[in-house]
Amino acid sequence: LALTVPLATTVLPLAQYVLQVFLSPFSFFGRRKIKKWGVAYDALTKEPLDLVIVRLVDEATGKIVQTRVTGADGKYGFLVDPQKKYRLEIKKSHYQFPSKYLAGVKKDEVFSDLYYGEDITFADDRLDKKREIDDEEVGTEYGYIARDIPLDPVEGQVFVAGANSRSFKSSISTLKDYSQKTFEQIRKENEKILRHNLYRKITKFISYLGPVLSFISYLITPSKLFLFLIFFNVLILVIFRRLGEYREKMPYGQVFDLKNKKNIPRAVVRLFDPKYGRLVSAKVTDNQGRYGFLAKQKEYVLTCEKEKYHLPNKKMTVKPKEGVVNRDLGLEEVKRKKNLES
C-alpha cells in the first residue's frame, strides 16, 4: 500500500508519457496531411518545448479526439471538423498552463495567435479558411487548429540544462530571492546545482552501460536472450534520452578569471527574466569554462559565481544574439563574505 501513491504519481504517468511519444507519430500517416503547425513554448525564454502533450477535446461530448506530442521544435497540429467546437488540453512536466505571464497577450515575439484554454470554433479567425483535402476526398471541408501555446515554468524549479531538461527545487527562483541572499547562502544553493549537474552526468554514463554490457555478453555467449537484451537496452536508452536529455548546439560564452584570464570550470551562471523577475535557467560551466542559454526575449539579467569568485557588479544585463545568451563573463576573487544585494 505504501508503494501505491508513488506508483500512481510517477511510474504510471511516465508510462503514459512514453506511449504518447511513440504512438503519436502513427497518427500522421493518414491520407490527410497537416500543413500548418502551432508551437508550444516556454513563456520566459521563448524556447520551443519538447514532449508537450496536446489533446484535442470535442467540447460537445468532452471526449478526447486526437493527441499530439511535440518534438524538439515544439510543433503540433490538428485537422478538425469545421462544424464542431473544440478546446485543447496541455500537459508538460514542471510547466503550468494557461500562461499567467502572458495572459491576454495575442502576439509574443515571434509567436502569434496565442492560446489560453478557450473554446475554438471554425468560425474563428484562428482557423484557416475552408480547404479541399486531396483528390480522394474532394469536397470534404476541414480546418486547422494550430495555435501557439505559451507555458509558464513552475516557480521554485530550476532548469539546469534548459527548458526541456529535468528540474529541481531551489530557494532562489526570482531576482529578489537572489538579491536577499548572502554569499554563503548562494554558495549552498550553487552546491545543489553542482550536485544535480553531476547526477545528470552519472546517470547519462550509467545509461550507456546496459547496451555495452549486453553486447559484451552476446559476444561471449551468442544467444537469442542476449540479442534481445541488446535491443531492449538500446530501446530503454533511446526512451530516457528522449525524455531526460536536453540536446543543444550553440556558440558558447566563456567564464574566466579577470586577473589571470584563465577559464573557470564549474561556475554557476543564472539567467533571470527582468520583466517578471523569474529565474529562467541555470548552467554549470564545463571544463573549459563554457556556457550558453537559448533565449529569444529582448533582455535578460545574468549572474555568475563560483566559490571564491563573483561578478564585479553582482549581475549583468544582456541581450541575446541570434537567440543565444553567451556573453563572456570575467569574475574576480571574493576577499570576504559579502551580501550580493544590488
What do these coordinates show?
The chain is of the alpha+beta class. The chain is 25% helix and 28% strand. It has four helices and 25 strands. It has helices at 4-23, 175-180, 183-220, 224-244, and strands at residues 38-42, 53-58, 64-69, 75-76, 78-80, 85-91, 95-96, 107-108, 111-112, 120-121, 131-132, 141-145, 149-153, 157-159, 167-169, 253-257, 268-273, 278-284, 290-291, 293-294, 300-306, 309-310, 316-318, 324-325, 329-333. Strands 16, 17, 18, 19, 21, 22, 23 and 25 form an eight-stranded mixed beta sheet that branches. It has a four-stranded mixed beta sheet with strand order 4-1-13-7, with no helix packed on it. A four-stranded antiparallel beta sheet has the order 3-2-6-10, covered by helices on one side. Helix 3 (183-220) runs antiparallel to helix 4 (224-244). The longest helix has 38 residues, at 183-220. The N and C termini lie far apart (51 Å). Mean pLDDT is 76; it is low at 1-13, 24-32, 124-140 and 337-342.
Shape: flat
Give the amount of beta strand, in percent: 25-35%
Structural class: alpha+beta
How are helices and strands ordered from N to C?
Answer: HEEEEEEEEEEEEEEEHHHEEEEEEEEEE
Major beta sheet, specifics? Answer: 8 strands, mixed
Q: Determine Rg (CA atoms, Å).
A: 23 Å
- Please tally the helical runs, counting DSSP H or I stretches of 4 or more residues: 4
- Span between N and C termini? 51 Å
